[in-house]
């Protein structure tokens, strides 16, 4: 077995998450970073022995775009679960950025990070 790390950074999607009514109506951009701990069954040069990160990126976008939640903590957990659903992923760390969060002071970003491993 070979363990590798795959990172996807800066995945962008529009979601309708937040505790305020205007966030649910207007939506906003969320940015997702995912770091995957992947165990490959061999060293073959074959996509079937690893994670199709293009497919995973599409799944993460779909997760952001569906079923609004109040907290980005909840969204981050949903995204980690999607990563861990892949049979070769043994651990995942997902960071959700909410760069346009409704904060009344100057700020650069708001992030929530969720990390889980398979038992």
Detailed description of the structure:
The protein is an alpha+beta fold and 119 residues long. A 4-stranded antiparallel beta sheet has the order 1-2-3-4. 27% of the residues lie in helices and 36% in strands. The chain has a single domain, classed as GTP Cyclohydrolase I, domain 2 (2-Layer Sandwich), CATH 3.30.1130.
Q: Which key features would you list for this structure?
A:
27% helix; single chain; alpha+beta; four-stranded antiparallel beta sheet; 36% strand; GTP Cyclohydrolase I, domain 2; 119 residues
Q: Kindly state the number of beta strands.
A: 4
Separation, N- and C-terminal Cα atoms: 17 Å
Indicate the mean pLDDT. 96
Please compute the radius of gyration using only Cα atoms: 15 Å
SS content category? alpha+beta
- Report the helical percentage: 25-40%
The number of helical runs is 3
Strand content: 35-45%
Draw up the topology in text.
Blueprint: E1 2-15, H1 21-26, E2 28-40, H2 53-65, H3 72-84, E3 89-97, E4 111-117
Antiparallel strand pairs: 1-2, 2-3, 3-4
Helix pairs in contact: 2-3
